[in-house]
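Late entry, evening session. Most of the bench is empty. Finally got around to the prediction I had been postponing all week. Sequence below, unchanged from the version circulated by S.P.
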Amino acid sequence: MPEETVKLKGLEKIKKAYILRATRRLSPQIPTIDQDTTVIPSNKEEALPTYLRHDGYQPLINYWTEEDLILADEFRDGNVSASFDCYTSLYRSVEMLLDSVREVMVRTDSAGLNYEEFIDRLEEGFKVKGRHIKVYYAISCDMVDALKKEIERLPDEAWKPLRKITEKGLEEGRKEWSEVKNCTL
């Protein structure tokens, strides 16, 4: 992938100033960053084939859920794997956050599972401007036999209600979640 141009780097600085200005009164403590790629079909001659078997692009987006802001984005050709260097883009998004942030929650899909060092690096957390930022993360993946067996082995007490934020505050929904660790897929 090509290096960012001077103009794009300048735009990044403007975006950071905007994000800081938009959120400074809030002083958020634990933002949620949703990382995902999106396939965008294109008929441009230079567009490359995506995993969906049509030409296009596949940008990587890091979205701050609570504030409805894109923290970092990375333009990618269609043939760039969704799992390619997810960490660098995520780190750039954490750099955009206020200095008051000491913890982040990260959600990604199975692209995070495919990048060898991604999970290990999330476990280490981020070091930004001399401060350590702890990372809590959730990585979704396809239901393969190995994962299904691990889920079926979980005791009932391992399941917790999935809560959602509403106008009334946090409310328990009808869905549940649990953790599955060290499952070889």
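Two things to note before I forget:
The chain has a mean pLDDT of 85.
The CA atoms of residues 67 and 132 lie 22 Å apart.
Will write this up properly tomorrow.
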